[in-house]
Design a protein that fits this description.
There is one protein chain. By secondary structure, this protein is α/β, with parallel strands linked by helices. It contains five helices and six strands. It has helices at 27-40, 54-66, 92-95, 103-120, 136-147; strands spanning 2-9, 47-50, 73-74, 128-134, 164-170, 176-182. A six-stranded mixed beta sheet has the order 3-2-4-1-5-6, with helices on both faces. Helix 1 packs across helix 2 (54-66). The longest helix is centred in the middle third of the chain and has 18 residues, at 103-120.
Length: 200
Amino acid sequence: MSHYLYLVRHGEHQDAEHGLRDGKLSERGKRQSMLIADRLGGLPFDGVYHSPLEAPSETAAFLSQRLPSIQPEPSTLLFDCIPSGPTPDMPHAYQGWYGGITEEEIVAGQAQMGDAVSEWFTPAREDRHDLLITHNAVIGWFVREAFQAPEWRWMGTNVAHTALTIIRIRSAKPAEVVTLNDLAHLPVELRTGLPVDQPV
């Protein structure tokens, strides 16, 4: 049996382009949220969970408006965080990114992601479908976990606002990434949140 994780980054929030990490959804973010809701319609979700921060909470609220059968629940395991600190095998180019990050933030992020993996990277007795509305770093860590890649590798995984990533957890085989940063539901003008523009 398979445990499917549907990972969705929250919609774009106001002033996201100015570096703010959270806030109310922008008008684009609201449209993104409605479109991912339409994309996910009809899937048999067993659980829907979201980060308690404002943008993912509002994204989850839009989904529940369009999909009245779901009841999103906040989870502190899905907070935005720093999943790991610098490691000896990390490329030098990433080292400077940690300049403003405290040791306490790193320790808290490591503990959170350890608990999140224990919570959701578990096989199911029957097919299970969980939707997690969260942040770029959390999704990057889950993808890294699926590939059993080095700890720093979450930093090279970027997903757009309301992009869809699906991971399949199995009992007898390694986890597999079914799709990563799927933007098929978004027109080009709504594809935001990536560090570089996507080719069209």
